[in-house]
Amino acid sequence: MNTIKKIIGTAAVTAITIPSLALAAPAGGYGDLVETVSPSVVFIEVTGAGGSRVGPASKESSPNGLGSGFIISADGDIVTNHHVVNGAASVVVKLADGRSFDAEVVGSDPMTDIALLKILSDEDLPVVAFGASEEMRAGDEVFAVGNPFGLGNTVTSGIISAMSRNINSGPYDDFIQTDAAINRGNSGGPLFNDHGEVIGVNTMIYSPDGGSVGIGFAVPSDLAQTIVTDLEDDGTISRGWLGVQIKPMSQEIADVLGYDAPKGAMIEMVTADSPAATAGLQIGDIILSFAGTEINEMRDLTRAVANTSPDETAEVVVLHKGSEVTMDVQIGLLQPSEA
Questions:
Q1: Which of 8, 48, 228, 278 ranks highest by number of CB atoms within 10 Å?
Q2: Number of domains into which the chain is organized
Q3: Which of 83, 108, 212, 285 is catalytic?
Q4: Over 27-88, what HEC string results?
Q5: Which class for 83: exposed (0-12), middle (13-18), buried (19 or more C-beta within 10 A)?
Q6: Percent of the chain with pLDDT over 70
Q7: Tell me, what CATH number does 292's domain have?
């Protein structure tokens, strides 16, 4: 059966310096770039892990786990996937030069599958830098470095197959899809552009048998960098909470309302004593905008609410019994949960 799988991969480590643009991949290949960035890619060994994510809802239990990561600061900040280190009793990071370090999990975010680790070294560590994922396009060349099946630094290359891919695995679906080969052990490893910048964190594959079939997914660097910055602060992510269950507007309702296409998010349940209930939102209301963000599909609302600081008041425009109504809603705090 074809499945979406979160792959156990080496811990990804991001860096603070950017390789020279002169290292852009020549016609002969990525050799110079690989030599430059590979020392910053690490291998992660986990013991006592609760399990890796396999598909949107199931888990596979394992006493040990492998992953990849990349170093983003000379003093030992490392980026990887949440599912690589989730439930770990111990985490060991191995560098390309053979050195090993015990790692501390600074913080982890299941909703985006991003985690931040810390290792301590007596000398500066090699780093890689985040690039701008928003500048990437389908067809752009990329390459991945990681530790598939624990084999050590392995390089694969390909192109971006699609941007902003929604695979219905969670509210933050906005993946970069690539045909660069990604396998078990690549989880948390970096996806590079042709300047040697990290533009994605490899996290999932679509596979009928667990191996690569040329359909891999990476968390965009723009999102990953935002999460890492928050985790660096206090190891946690604070997100807003509205307290509604929503569904898409149907085409029939859109036709009745005179819209060219469905838009907004229709409320099908309001949680008691939630910010939505306090503000007067009701079942059947259609949320058209939230804090200035137009709601065209459900994930637009989910993200807009989550990105609003708890206790902040947001202006919400809803279609209520055929009329547009503007409400002020004081947003609550979303409790942590698995993605």
A1: 8
A2: 2
A3: 83
A4: CCCCHHHHHHHHHHEEEEEEECCCCEEECCCEEECCCEEEEEEEECCCCCEEEECHHHHCCC
A5: buried
A6: 81
A7: 2.30.42.10
Within-domain flag for 339? no
Active site residue 169: no
Q: What is the pLDDT of residues 210-242, one digit of tens each?
A: 655 678 889 999 999 999 999 998 898 888 999
Pick the catalytic residue from 77, 113, 194, 300.
Answer: 113
Q: What share of the chain is helix, strand, coil (3-state, %, to 5)?
A: 15, 40, 45
Instruction: Decide if 320 is catalytic.
Output: no
Tokens of 262: 């469905």
Same domain, 79 and 154: yes
Tokens in use for 167? 């695979």
pLDDT in tens, 75-104: 999 999 999 999 888 999 999 888 999 999
pTM: 0.77
* Structural domain containing residue 59: 3-234
DSSP label at residue 284 = T
Is 187 marked active-site?
A: yes
Query: Of 187, 207, 212, 221, which is the active-site residue?
Result: 187
Cα separation, 68 vs 3, whole angstroms: 21
